[in-house]
# Entry
Amino acid sequence: KLYDEIKKVCGNLKLSEADTADSSSDKRIVISIYGGSGSGKTTIAAALQQYFLNDNTACYVLTGDNYPHRIPMRNNESGEDGLRGYLGTPKEIDFDRINKELSEFKEGKDIIEIKHMGREDGDISYDETDFTGIKVLILEWTHGGSEYLKGVDIPVFLESSPEETKARRIKRGRDENAASPFICRVVELEQEKLDLQSKNARIVVGKVYEQ
# Structure
């Protein structure tokens, strides 16, 4: 159902390599799958990628680990206001870098340097990724509906709640402190950001897609 809806939003845009007679076949599209931890981003992104491939449309999934900083432990000491001003902002995430990568993709560049970031600056690394023939780029990332993010054609928001996020993090063993007061507060503050980002979505995925 979600794939069909995305195709509707794409309208008459032809993305398949088979459409070489139409100049629109050269166009590239960026889809953002975003939502809280455990909301199904990875699963849905992988499924969408397969549907596009089944339609002979080359598709690449760029996961959240490719570009944002993770929450450094020092933010545990900065208090709630510090966390609220950090999560999902340019202080946490190198939006300029992400936007540059998306811009290069949409401009048709085939070899793009992707930045990988961990908890601290020393964890940063880079690699060159070949996007030759790729027509659809799927961002699978919590803050993919952010006002700081530029170049997304179809933002898709996955609804979830802090309670659901907490339960999923514990079930998945996401981290040893999944149920700690600090992590729970981070999830709640993150949800505040997501509630704002949900307004930027072209498609909202609710429980109807969980059947």
